[in-house]
Amino acid sequence: MTKLTRAWAEGSTPRAKIWADVPDEQWNDWRWQLSHRVNDLAVLQSFINLTEEEIAGISAPNKFRLDITPYFASLIDPDDPRCPVRQQVIPKARELAAFDSMMADSLAEDRDSPVPGLVHRYPDRVLMLVTTQCASYCRYCTRSRIVGDSTATFSRSEYELQLDYLRRTPQVRDVLLSGGDPLTLAPRLLEYLLSELRKIEHIEIIRIGSRVPVFMPQRVTDELVDMLAKYHPLWLNIHVNHPKEITPELYRACDKLTRAGIPLGNQSVLLAGINDSVHIQRELVQKLVQMRVRPYYLYQCDLVAGAGHFRTTVSKGIEIIEGLRGHTSGYAVPTYVVDAPGGGGKIPVSPQYLISQSPGHVVLRNYEGFITSYTEPTDYDPNAIKPLEEKAAKRPEPGQAGVFQLLEGKELFIKPQGFETIHRRNAIEHRLNRDKKKWIPYKKNGTATPVPAESADSAS
Description:
By secondary structure, the chain is α/β, with parallel strands linked by helices. Helices cover about 30% and strands about 15% of the residues. The chain folds into three domains: about 5-95, no CATH class; about 120-350, TIM Barrel (Alpha-Beta Barrel); about 400-460, no CATH class.
């Protein structure tokens, strides 16, 4: 073990003064942590020197839900309004201000939901929302439209609709449980959902997205870990935004999970004034890998209510990746993504390392600015793999083949919505446009099937 991991294995987080006399047995009980969450102005003022703007934010009647576990509240610097933990969970008045392009559901998840709480955006995987409750509430929450609202949580009948959809949709091989936070569910309900998913033969992978190990590591008990391990292959992504959140308690929780064979990843959000720094991000990812947590995604902040003052430019995210790639281990570099407004999914964004290319050569640069030329083979035969490829398992991706179908030569173009209608200009049928075969591309092994104009209009 390194000096740091030894300190994590043996240490503990100092408690805020109001909980100094709580017996260890209670403090280490996750149910006690949940039932003693802080959401009251007077209690917060008893151990945090709040600013006027924080008082206004906490007092606002229409604010996004406020709840903080005593454990996580103990990480707050009571005298520093810029404390990176404090800014994530203490409301400010400015979070109520609207900003350009703000949307209630900026990722269009509810629109892409075939049944309540199930989002089927990618061909082979789905997002399964199972609760609206969290251990604590991030002020920039992507799903603030429902998260924190106990009246909006999902019912047993809606779980059955989700499971039924998955049973009859064989193209789905990967299910991500999220919410809210799945690890706040009653243990029996969580196990019921996992057991039902594992009964579906075509579902290969189950994933859980949770901030509970960060907000409330006491929840990661031996009993929970043993239960999760029954449903392998199971993966878990946690959510750490700043090195200050990495504590001995989180280290021990992650150690339990990884020893049970559960691979861990981390998803963080790029937040102005909290982690929008190459040096802070480098410290974060290097501490994560010491806990055997793989940095997975660094998200650009979404266009949701409450997140306006947390947003950075995209160029800042690219700058951070530039400062990580080559400057730390490759597996410590997350993928920086913009989750596309309007429902386009996660779009990776990174510095440009390919400078130029010509027949037989590509010109590349590294993190230092070293420029090199890679010579490509002149005798490469891309068709030599075809006999093996024909034997490979293929999953259908109806309507979602996207750019890949252009690379495979199955199509010559992808048309924006309304493209045909716009360019027809209300044309009459005449002698020059009557023959629809003019626009069918020739293929040596036959001709492509013509796509009706109406279908092309609806494709996006």
